[in-house]
Amino acid sequence: MISMEKTVLRCIEEIGPTGRFQLCMAIMCFISALFSGYLTFHFQSLTVSPEVVCLSQACKVLLNSDDPETTKEVMCSTVRHKDWTFVEGHKENFLTEFNLYCDRKWLISMGGTLYFVGFFFAVAPLSSITDKIGRKRSTELFVFSHILLILLLAISTSLYQVIICRILLGAAHGGMSVAMSVAFYEFTTAKPAMLNMMISSAGFSLGGGLSGLVAMWSAHWMQTLVPPLVGFAVLLTLFHFIVPETPHWLFAKGNESAAICSLNEVAKFNGYPALQNVGLVSVSGEATSSKKYQKSNILWNIPFLRNSIARLSFAWFTVAICYYGLEFNAGSLGNEYVIMMLMGCFDTPFKLAMYVYAGKVGRQWACQTYLGLAMFCLILSGVPALNLISIYGSITLKIILVACGRALGAAVFALLYIYTTEILPTLVRSLGLSCCSTAARVGSLLSPCVILVDEISPYIIYVFTVVCLMIAMKLLRGIPETLGKPLPNNLEDCEKLFCGGEIKRKKVEDPFKLDSLKM
Question: Considering the entire predicted model, what is its pTM?
Answer without folding.
Answer: 0.70
